[in-house]
Each structure stands twice: as structure tokens, then as C-alpha cells.
UniProtKB/TrEMBL annotation:
Name under which the protein is recorded: Uncharacterized protein
InterPro entries: 3-5_Exoribonuclease, ERI-1_3'hExo-like, Ribonucl_H, RNaseH-like_sf, RNaseH_sf
Ranges where the record places region Disordered: 37-58
Keywords noted in UniProt: Exonuclease, Hydrolase, Nuclease
PANTHER family for this protein: 3'-5' EXONUCLEASE ERI1-RELATED, 3'-5' EXORIBONUCLEASE 1-RELATED
GO molecular-function terms, A-Z: 3'-5'-RNA exonuclease activity; nucleic acid binding
Length: 319
């Protein structure tokens, strides 16, 4: 989680919310409704026309991400109204001007960065990763899954999801798509193998790549905790990572408690919803990109040894 003590600011959207009765409509509409709901801050607001295309605006309108698309599950790629309402690419937000100002850029030790931002305090609920080319800073690919807790009853899951995702309206898509953590890890390893980032048969660290997180919590604490709950060994590629807050501290000589503080100090507006993991990975990527463009060299900041204890490699770090 990209934790911050700063109030969150949301972009206002020009499409209206889906009323509660939509869940009784036929599956095709439900798909749309759930994705629509994923973008709205006021789930209880009324009136909508899901077939109407919004009037043209003078500049490109920000669109919420289709959260079925991010999980390779969108079945509406030929539906114009759906495509008009929801983004089905990362390039609009992240690849424009990726390499706009690279005169201070220094060579990196890695070919790729994997920006990871887990959500879920009790058990992991969301596992989003953006794969960034370390030279061009473009988004190469992404992996995103909602995760179903393994040790909770249905009623508790429903309360947990309502509390976590209800206010940003993504509970329907979560219920439609969430799968167990063990299955997420299996699919994630297949995805990494496809990109030659890691291979099951060799094990060990990532291949010329490093995880980027905002804080140590994600990989130091939550991954081993979830692995224990899911009765699996902590995978070998989760043994080292880069905490962007420590890079930020050592490069700019300023302490930032979280993603929102870094973004505020760098005069970057928030994209999407804070604490929707896939949106947080985009915002962390924008901070990462700025650091690299300003001349930072990304180095591993923490390592876990075979006994499970973690060593921090930077003297100056956020505690
Ligand atoms: Zn879609």
C-alpha cells in the first residue's frame, strides 16, 4: 500500500454512476456496470444512461481504467460506448512524454522495474504490477489480479470488500474476478516467464529486474504473511526490493512519508483513486520516472536472508 497521511484528492469525472439495481440486469450490462462503478466516488448517486456517449470536450477526458481489461478479462473491446467510457491502455497516462526530458538520466543496473503496490491489510486483496523499461521508462506490460482471501468466511469477505473498495465503487468487479493468492502467484510466475524476468526451473532472483515499492511493507511484511496464510513458501524473487521512499530520501535529501507526499513535493497531480492498487502503481511509476529523469540511480534498498530477517542497505532510510 502506498501509505500517506495527506488527504486524497480525486479527479472529477464526467460520467455518472450506475444505480444499485444494475446488478439485476443481464450479465453483459453487469460487466459494464461493475467496471463503471469502479471509477466513481459516489456509489449511491442516481441516474445514468449507459448507452450515451458523453459530449466532445476540448481536451482528452481522463477515463477510469477498465478493471476487467487490466486482468485480461474484458469482453467488451468491440463496444464503442464501453471504450469511450473506460481506458484500455496505460499509454494515455503513462507513455506520453515518458522520455521527454532525459538529459540528466544515468545508466541503471537493471533492464526492467516491476512497480508493485499491494492492497489489503488482513489478507492481500489486490496484486498489481507495472513492468517498466529502465531505459525508455515506458510501460512494457502489466499484471493485475484481485485476490480472494483464503481464511475468511463469505460474510467477512463481503464486509471487508465493502469497507475497502465500497467507497471507490470497485466491489462488483472485485467479486466478479478475485482468485486465491496461490493462483495469482502461479499466473504471475507465468507472466514473468513470458517476459524472461524469472524462470520457475531456475528459481532465484529476478533476471536484470527489481521490484519497486513505496515502503517496505509490501514485500518485507505482507508477502511472507500471506504466504503463511496460503500455506506456501515465500517465493525466491521476493528476497530483495527497492523502497522508492529511501531512493527519494537519498537523492533529494528530503523525507517523504508516502506516495502522496512525494507527489505533492514534485507538483504531480494524482491519477485515479488513491488505494486502488493499480492506480497507485501508476502514480508510483510517475514518481520513479521523475527520479530517473532527474538523475537518480536505482539500487536495491533491502534484502531478506535465508533465515527470513531483512537487512536494509541504505544508512539513511525512512523508518
Ligand atoms: Zn473493458
Amino acid at each position: 500500500m502506498a501509505v500517506s497521511r495527506v488527504c486524497l484528492h480525486r479527479f472529477s469525472l464526467s460520467i455518472s454512476s450506475i444505480p444499485p439495481y444494475i446488478s439485476h440486469l443481464r450479465p453483459r450490462i453487469r460487466h459494464f456496470a461493475a467496471v463503471s462503478a469502479s471509477s466513481h466516488s459516489t456509489p449511491n448517486s442516481t441516474s445514468t444512461d449507459i448507452t450515451t456517449t458523453p459530449p466532445p470536450s476540448p481536451r482528452p477526458r481522463w477515463k477510469p481504467m477498465c478493471l476487467y481489461f487490466t486482468q485480461s478479462l474484458c469482453t467488451k473491446m468491440d463496444d464503442l460506448a464501453h471504450l469511450n467510457a473506460f481506458s484500455h491502455t496505460f499509454s494515455e497516462e503513462l507513455n506520453i512524454n515518458a522520455a521527454a526530458d532525459m538529459k540528466h538520466v544515468r545508466p541503471q543496473q537493471f533492464d526492467h522495474f516491476l512497480v508493485l503496490d499491494l492492497e489489503g491489510k488482513v489478507e492481500i486483496l489486490e496484486f498489481p504490477v507495472l513492468m517498466i523499461d529502465a531505459k525508455t521508462l515506458a510501460v512494457v506490460d502489466f499484471f493485475h489480479r484481485f485476490v480472494r482471501p483464503s481464511e475468511m468466511g463469505e460474510q467477512r469477505i463481503n464486509q471487508y470488500i465493502e469497507g475497502k473498495y465500497g467507497k471507490i465503487g470497485v466491489q462488483s468487479v472485485w467479486h466478479d474476478t478475485a482468485i486465491p493468492f496461490t493462483e495469482v502467484i502461479k499466473q504471475f510466475e507465468d507472466w514473468m516467464a513470458k517476459h524472461q524476468l524469472w524462470a520457475r526451473e531456475y528459481g532465484g532472483h529476478l533476471n536484470k529486474a527489481a521490484f519497486i515499492t513505496c515502503g517496505n511493507w509490501d514485500i518485507k511484511t505482507k508477502i511472507p504473511e500471506q504466504c503463511k496464510v496460503s500455506r506456501m513458501k515465500t517465493p525466491s524473487y521476493f528476497m530483495e526490493w527497492i523502497n522508492l521512499k529511501d531512493i527519494y530520501l537519498n537523492f533529494y535529501k528530503r523525507r517523504a512519508s508516502g506516495m502522496m507526499t512525494m507527489m505533492r513535493e514534485l507538483h504531480m497531480p494524482l491519477v485515479g483513486s488513491h488505494h486502488l492498487g493499480i492506480d497507485d502503481t501508476k502514480n508510483i511509476t510517475r514518481v520513479l520516472r521523475r527520479l530517473i529523469n532527474d538523475g537518480a540511480v536505482l539500487q536495491i534498498t533491502a534484502q531478506r536472508n535465508s533465515t527470513g530477517s531483512v537487512e536494509f542497505l541504505f544508512e539513511n532510510r525512512i523508518r
